[in-house]
User: Fold this.
Amino acid sequence: MTTALITGATAGIGAAFARRLASDGHSVVLVARDEKRLREQATELHDRHGIEAEVLRADLATEEGIAAVEERLADPTRPVDLLVNNAGFGNKGEYLEVPMADELTMLKVHCEAVLRLTTAAVRGMRDRRRGAVVNVASVAAFVPRGTYGASKAWVVQFTQGAARDLAGSGVRLMALCPGFVRTEFHQRAGMGTDNIPGWLWLDAGKLVDAAMRDLARGKSLSVPDPRYKALVSAVKLAPRGVLGGITSRTGRKYGPR
Ligand SMILES: NC(=O)c1ccc[n+]([C@@H]2O[C@H](COP(=O)([O-])OP(=O)(O)OC[C@H]3O[C@@H](n4cnc5c(N)ncnc54)[C@H](OP(=O)(O)O)[C@@H]3O)[C@@H](O)[C@H]2O)c1
Assistant:
């Protein structure tokens, strides 16, 4: 039996990964901050699919939280075969409106934690000559979009670079770039979503199914859904000045301060 560790497993895309992987028969290690939600989810996955579901409460914005997950990933007696670095969040406001502490927390969760957890997992995977890492980025990685887009661009570049360095090792790495997905993300960030057209929304379960297909095909970059594939292709051709104007408004309508 194989084991998958998923960060940000209590909600949205991470919860969808946990459900999909448990239904495929993987044991799961569920990581997030809300221990009550983690335990409820672990019980449900265990009861429904008969798999082992472990709970690891960790705040990936803290040194202790990252270190605890690193330790679990590096434990040779309980190998992790698939790591999904998914935990993440949005900040409310545009540049200069976001407190510096919140910007730095974002870099800690989206970049430092992803770097350290990937590295802790991949060392053992390389020795065992098998394993995979999915790092959840965003289509925001391809457009000028504040610290959020910049942090996700880092995830894409880091993941594809590491995938290339590890080619032939038996370890696969893939950056997953979703568009808008119906989760708790926008509500938690205090972002209004009524200016996002309905046709742009993705379902978390379908997104995860597409990501798992791309991982099986050996892709290092996954942009699920034809709508977003087309948008990303168009973005690569469009002048950055034009892009900045359009993308800084879409999906960034902030609620009352
Ligand atoms: N939804 C979208 O439209 C969208 C689009 C592109 C990319 N993404 C990316 O997809 C990923 C998942 O987002 P989502 O949409 O599923 O959001 P979500 O529904 O808000 O879920 C976020 C998850 O991350 C966990 N989390 C947040 N901060 C954490 C921290 N400091 N330490 C540990 N866990 C933490 C949360 O659990 P706790 O609160 O229990 O810790 C929760 O399980 C993120 O990386 C996001 O940037 C989302």
Observations:
- The longest helix spans residues 100-128.
- Residues 7-14, 32-34, 37, 59-61, 86-89, 109, 136, 138, 178, 180-181, 183-185, 188 surround NAP (CB under 6 Å).
